[in-house]
Amino acid sequence: MNAPIPNDLEAYWMGFTPNRAFKKNPRMFVAADGMYYTTHEGKQILDGIAGLWCCNAGHKRPRIVKAIQQQVEEMDYCPAFQTGHPKAFELANRLTSILPDKLNHAFFVNSGSESVETALKIAIAYHRCRGEGHRTRLIGREKGYHGVNFGGMSVGGMPANRKMFGSLVAGVDHLRHTHGIPENRFTKGQPEHGAEFAEDLERLCELHDPSTIAAVIVEPIAASAGVIMPPKGYLERLREITTKHGILLIWDEVITGFGRMGTPFATEYFGIQPDIICSAKAIANGVIPMGAVFVQDHVYDAFMQGPENAIELFHGYTYSANPMACAAALAALDTYQEEGLFTRGAELWPYWEEAVHSLRGLPHVKDIRNMGLIGAVELESIPGQVTKRATDAFLKAYEKGLLIRTTGDIIAFSPPLIIEKSQIDFIFETMRDVLKTVE
Ligand SMILES: Cc1ncc(COP(=O)(O)O)c(C=O)c1O
């Protein structure tokens, strides 16, 4: 493919990227189809991470492409406040129908970060609506990632994402994380050890008094900090403690939503119902920015009081339920359902698990973990040079035609759910070659 190459890369300030290194040796994608990206040099790169955990049906899916084309012809934009359009309501109905019982209401946003800010604001406002305005504290978890806006950054627990930005939102505390428990190394599925870390919440309740706490937010699987699986019994215990103390439980399912766990959402996989769920990423297959916050009936109902002509929640975005995003999300949902992609992760799980764990024993491999169509390989760090090994592996894999993602010295895999077994083989054969040569 002969794609025009820009001759000056300076103006675009890229996020979460070493700009100077990238601009010396850029990796440019110019096309995408199915499981593959095409680089500006015409090389095919297998997408081992579904874009950024968002293109769950793969790339350039015909239904989605067509839906967007039709929508832009029909209606490009509709004001998000005081007017609506049918696809927004249809989408909310269809999305809530794939969620468990009581999660019957959707608030639309444009990203995972916005879904978290929205969920946190709803949680605090909910208590106020119920006459418990003293519940303002938010509890997150160390190593949590909830996007990059102030609320999400504050409840998040990734030091590099926090340290440059001042004192953040006040009144936030954190549970300890469950990463790195030695007995859990090389676990397939949920690890046995660490449920007792949920008791941290009781400790924080004692410290702050539960009547001051509005919500606890966790990712069921902490992805961005390096794929940390919840120990058996851990999530159940968090649900018990939050219920006992009248604290809202928010699950950030930005990554686990839309089939990643072999079920539509992780709430179904784990059999636990949070009060609020944050979603984004694969909601529109990563094609158009979108997200949604799902709330249980009791949360929504708490707001639907007072005079009927009064606004219940002073919150919303210009692009909430944008028609193009709704059209893309409806077509993504059709694609997921028609192609059985919500359960494909469950079907492929055993094959995937064996493939990921086949890397055990290679140089520097310290731990391997997997659930659904998620896998992670943790490497021993070079003293004083954390991230170097995984970054080398990323660059070497890319040279060999494979896109992976790294955080610290942990390599994550989360391919589109359309992946074939032969492509799973390609990922791990490539990684075997890569890991043999990483120093
Ligand atoms: C769990 C979780 N929450 C929130 C976000 C933020 O999403 P976005 O980058 O769309 O703002 C991410 C992104 O990776 C995520 O993994």
Descriptive account of the structure:
With 439 residues, the chain is of the alpha/beta class. The protein folds into two domains: 19-57 and 341-437, Alpha-Beta Complex (Aspartate Aminotransferase, domain 1); 65-338, Aspartate Aminotransferase, domain 2 (3-Layer(aba) Sandwich), CATH 3.40.640.10. It contains 15 helices and 15 strands. The radius of gyration is 22 Å and the shape is globular. The mean pLDDT is 97. Pyridoxal-5'-phosphate is lined by residues 111-113, 116, 145-147, 219, 223-224, 252, 254-255, 280.
Give the helices and strands as they follow along the chain.
Answer: HEEEHHHEHEHHEHEHEHEEHHHEEHEEEH
CATH class placement of the largest domain: Alpha Beta
Strand segment tally: 15
Mean of pLDDT: 97
CATH superfamily of the largest domain: Type I PLP-dependent aspartate aminotransferase-like (Major domain)
Distance between the termini: 34 Å
Helix content: 25-40%
**Class by SSE composition:** alpha/beta
Q: Which fold does the CATH topology of the largest domain refer to?
A: Aspartate Aminotransferase, domain 2
Low-confidence stretches: none
The number of helical segments is 15
Cross-sheet strand order for the largest sheet: 4-10-9-8-7-5-6
CATH architecture of the largest domain: 3-Layer(aba) Sandwich
Counting structural domains, the number is: 2
Shape: globular
Beta-strand percent range:
15-25%
